[in-house]
Specification:
The chain has 498 residues and is α/β, with parallel strands linked by helices. It has a 7-stranded mixed β-sheet. Strands 17, 18, 19, 20 and 21 form a 5-stranded antiparallel β-sheet that branches. Strands 4-3-5-6 form a 4-stranded parallel β-sheet. Helix 2 packs across helix 3 and helix 10 packs across helix 11.
Length: 498
């Protein structure tokens, strides 16, 4: 029996008064959390939800989000969290492709789901406590699940392709949690801040609800605000978090950030991009007792495949760490041959936390594996010590005049310029060269930057063919919830403007 709710029941019996969730002004004990789960499960059954049915959630962070995720598992159904930032037609596609039988929708997001007939609105009161919906329904009994049963569907962010349905089995989740619990030394004393969106593996799984598996506490914020996040760490003596790069950047830039007592905080996992040394040192300056943990992971692997080891951050700068205990990583060429240390190729993974298949898509499944090795679509290399260095997305490789240009290499050079706050390098169509490298830059406040200055700097550090041929200045870069720059969006926008 591997239902998520079994762990909550365990602590509801042994430490009933321990706080499991903090949401707004609520402190929800394990006993209360379990009561909400079984009552909501009873309500779902009354709506006709049966084991193996898919239940979708178009919801922002709330107590209700977690109550629903656990209740769906409790009755043996399958949870489908959907990115609430998607457009209506994208939500329609995911709902139809998944075969979901119903959708829970936050009241403020109802218009996004306007075409979904079988939906239930979740108002502000229900977001705080789902018992306002379910209080008159009998408690649902726990429906036993097996490790190979489907527990969740998640759809890829679509940075390079149309969203694919990722199949997560219970065994995928539990092996993920085991590895992260061991590597991060999670315990009942951990108090985690959750500011990323719970529909994303970063917030839900890195390590996310693994904290509850250990009897710890999660503080869930509906929306991210840097000052509120730092205040919560101080007030609740929080110990850990997952932050998208843009979130951490806003906290490090907050005026008056030094006034908060952040001494309880012991680590944060970053995600989405390789972290510059300056960012790591700035983090340590703000959080004196904490370490910044670079990591690498995918929706397809439930997140967190590598984590940087304590004390190796500067020595292995640019690396995302080594594989966790039950993850294997190799670097392979396009034919599936293993490449030696230090050689760039496609990052491939295998292990019990890797998805078994894509949802109803045997062709994409077949194209995504070399045997039992999952093809990430990312380019990188392993050094002689087994540390992973992420180089690029395969589809972000720029080919100009027959030469391959790794956009991340150019970006690292651009970040050396004091005028550059954020940047992304993309390839745009070029009649002569096939593609030309283009730098999209967010300048630092008050800084001036032109193509001539950028060209001179890059030529001092890069081969001429790698130097950007065009400079585009932006106020912000488009990013997905994990912090990854949406280069597809930039390519589409700039190619259309040409």
């Amino acid at each position: 029996m591997v239902n998520l709710s079994a762990q909550i029941r365990h602590f509801a019996l042994r430490t009933p008064d321990k706080v499991a969730l903090i949401y707004e002004d609520q402190r929800i004990t394990y006993a209360d959390f379990h009561d909400r789960i079984v009552k909501l499960g009873g309500w779902l059954k009354a709506q006709g939800v049966q084991p193996d049915h898919v239940v979708a959630a178009l919801m922002k962070n709330s107590a209700a989000f977690l109550e629903l995720a656990y209740a769906v598992s409790h009755i043996g159904a399958v949870f489908l969290p959907i990115n609430f930032r998607l457009a209506t037609d994208e939500v329609d596609y995911i709902f139809a492709n998944s075969g979901a039988v119903m959708m829970m929708v936050d009241e403020e997001l109802a218009d996004v789901a306007r075409n979904i007939m079988c939906k239930k609105r979740v108002d502000a009161e229900a977001q705080r406590d789902t018992r306002v919906i379910s209080e008159f329904h009998p408690d649902a009994p726990l429906e036993p699940r097996k490790p190979q049963d489907l527990y969740r569907l998640m759809y890829t962010s679509g940075t390079t392709d149309r969203p694919k349905g990722v199949v997560h089995l219970y065994e995928n989740y539990y092996w993920k949690s085991w590895d992260q619990i061991a590597d991060l030394k999670l315990s009942a004393d951990d108090r985690m801040l959750v500011v990323g969106p719970l529909y994303h593996v970063g917030a839900f799984d890195l390590p996310g609800i693994a904290v509850l598996d250990m009897g710890g506490t999660m503080l869930v914020m509906r929306d991210f605000d840097p000052e509120a996040a730092l205040a919560a760490i101080e007030r609740e003596r929080l110990t850990c978090a997952w932050f998208a790069p843009v979130m951490l950047g806003r906290m490090l830039a907050l005026e008056g950030r030094e006034r908060f007592d952040l001494s309880s905080f012991r680590w944060c996992i970053g995600g989405g991009e390789r972290t510059p040394e300056g960012r790591i040192r700035a983090f340590t300056g703000l959080f004196p007792n904490a370490r910044y943990i670079d990591g690498y992971g995918l929706t397809e692997t439930v997140g967190g495949d590598t984590l940087m080891e304590a004390g190796r951050e500067i020595e292995k700068i640019g690396s995302t760490g080594r594989a966790l205990a039950h993850v294997e990583i190799t670097i392979r060429d396009n034919d599936g041959n293993v490449l030696p240390a230090g050689t760039e190729g496609e990052i491939c993974l295998r292990g019990p936390k890797v998805l078994p298949r894509y949802w109803n898509d045997p062709e994409k499944t077949a194209a995504s594996f070399f045997g039992d090795w999952f093809r990430s679509g990312d380019v990188g290399y392993l050094d002689a010590d087994g540390f992973l260095f992420l180089t690029d997305r395969k589809k972000d490789m720029i080919i100009s005049g027959g030469e391959n240009i790794a956009s991340s290499e150019v970006e690292r050079v651009l970040y050396q310029m004091p005028e550059v706050a954020e940047c992304a390098v993309i390839g745009l169509p070029d009649e002569r060269w096939g593609e030309r490298p283009v730098a999209v830059v967010v300048p630092r406040a008050g800084a001036a930057l032109d193509l001539a200055a950028l060209d001179a700097h890059c030529r001092a550090h890069l081969a001429a063919f790698k130097v950007p041929k065009q400079l585009v200045l932006r106020d912000v870069l488009p990013r997905n919830p994990s912090g990854k720059v949406l280069k597809r969006v930039l390519r589409d926008e700039l190619a259309g403007a040409a």
